[in-house]
Design brief:
Layout (H helix, E strand, L loop, with lengths): L1 H22 L20 E17 L4 E19 L2 E14 L4 E17 L2 E18 L3 E19 L4 E15 L8 E15 L1
Amino acid sequence: MYTKIIALAAVAFSAVPAFAADAVVQDPAYVQQGQTQSAFDWSGFYLGLQGGYTSTHASYLNGSEQDLDGGSTGIYGGYNFQHGPFIFGIENDFNYNWKDGSDVSLKWDGSARGRVGYALDRTLIYGTGGLAAAGGEVDVPGIGKKDDILIGWIAGGGVERALTDNIMMRAEYRYDDFGRKDFGSALGDFEVNQQKVTIGTSFKF
């Protein structure tokens, strides 16, 4: 599972610069001698759509484990502050997850995070972390489905590219840890974490 996630993250991260190289057509920068072209300004609000691959892992007190692969789609938005090449920001997102059948699943997830990055003109390399929440669902044999909200933490990072002054594209990896949860079921306590690789496109206002 982890080999698959690392491979997908590598493909996703390499897709942004490659896509940007094909998609962006820049005007020739003819500037007067002694002058340089101004760097891209990352500051401001942005709103975007994202989708990708999700892997959920659940481990039980009895030693059994479950791994569940699936897809995810959602929205994200935030605000960036820029100081020289350094970028500081806040971001929220909400995602719907779909997966194959399992006793435990995360139907949705969201987060409130901070971002810190370094900009190389129109390319931004960043790390992110903060608070995560998810809608957990457990299928209890003989009882049916029970659901609850899980709270945990999130950490990750990504690469973002400004294709134009307003359109940005990014690839991101994130890890969510929701700790131990008891649904009061025959399954007992279990620990849940989630890994996600996404590609997103946003509009900067």
